[in-house]
Amino acid sequence: MTDLPPPPARGCREAPVLKERGQREVFCGLTGIIWLHRKMQDAFFLVVGSRTCAHLLQSAAGVMIFAEPRFGTAILEEKDLAGLADANAELDREVARLLERRPDIRQLFLVGSCPSEVIKLDLDRAAERLNVVHAPHVRVLSYTGAGTDTTFTQGEDSCLAAMVPTLPETTARELLLVGSLPDVVEDQALALLAALGIGPVRCLPARRAGEMPGVGPDTVFALVQPFLGETHGALVKRGARHVAAPFPFGEEGTTRWLRAIADEFGVSPETFEAATAAPRARARKAVAAHAEELRGKSIFFLPDSQLELPLARFLTRECGMTAVEVGTPYLHRDILGPDLDLLAEGPVISEGQDVDLQLDRVRAARPDLTVCGLGLANPLEAEGLATKWAIELVFSPVHFYEQAGDLAALFARPLTRRRILKLEAAE
């Protein structure tokens, strides 16, 4: 079968993990709505929260004043927070008004926020109650996007995990791709799998409510996002089996991800080579165009998106970078084990967050590039350290062969910019 570089002599699967349990700096879990509402074309996300929640979504999504977005906020006023009003009755009225005005909605998600959790508003029970009223035209589900003790990508995980128990039972042997991708990237993945002769292939989330997959003991699922720990557990509980593989970032990651699925479905080496040779060559060429800027440079990942370990694997193995520390909010070994096997022993692996201590280590190491949240980037830049926003890696198309060069470019640009500025300052 297609040749791949061998794993390192010693990977990081058994490396000691530095567990941090201190001050956190995270972006709100409601942010996941921004990409989920674009993915699920007949769904609506109703955040039960404050005006701050509404402003966050409006500004983060960049929705223009004349747009008709598929998310909104049911505002909890002072009387709701003080217990002077029946919040459930008001929520029922808001949902009824929304569905009357938007008959195109087929799935309605009640999304919990910090304010709704503070007053202990039971959105699970509210969703059950509203399902009785509005089914079968609309399915009502609930999940929490509160950002008090989570990271921003967990909003998607909570949403998909809430959907799993409602998926129909199936006895068909099917491949299920789990995780939200831009439509064009998802189409590329489906085309690659079709070229391998693998099918039927279903997706969670599906683009429309009527296309939701079934789940059963013959369902095999592959994750495309590394932050789906709760969804992974929910699918296993339904009897589905996970195909463990490195995540499809870069040429090697994509090839190993595809090969794990191909082995599961008995694809021949000749078929695999025929389907992947051309896109692999394009990916290698695209990555090489940016690897020269990255080769030999050091990188430090602060915990933020949960993409850190697969990205560190890509940057060290395909771009020649050196990882100083790879921090991640949560280390799920069943999901990240294959990437840990490929990440050569050496960097500190940390789980959780203690901002002050981690910033001390960044300042001591002075890496060439630091990947961090929005709130830390500007202070580090002011101290002369080049940074990359972690959130940009979630919002940008970065999966599979055709995006491998774009992924490398996202890390090369800050270093290129800094190099050019130094040259201009020296003239």
From TrEMBL:
User: Matching Gene3D superfamilies, A to Z?
Assistant: Nitrogenase molybdenum iron protein domain
Q: Name one GO molecular function term.
A: oxidoreductase activity, acting on iron-sulfur proteins as donors
Which residues are in the Nitrogenase/oxidoreductase component domain?
A: 28-402
- How the cofactor binds, per note? Binds 1 [4Fe-4S] cluster per heterodimer. The cluster is bound at the heterodimer interface by residues from both subunits.
Instruction: Tell me which domain of life the UniProt entry assigns to the organism this sequence originates from.
Output: Bacteria
Name the family the entry cites: Belongs to the BchN/ChlN family.
What does this protein do, in the record's words? Component of the dark-operative protochlorophyllide reductase (DPOR) that uses Mg-ATP and reduced ferredoxin to reduce ring D of protochlorophyllide (Pchlide) to form chlorophyllide a (Chlide). This reaction is light-independent. The NB-protein (BchN-BchB) is the catalytic component of the complex.
Return the protein name.
Answer: Light-independent protochlorophyllide reductase subunit N
The gene from which this protein is expressed is bchN
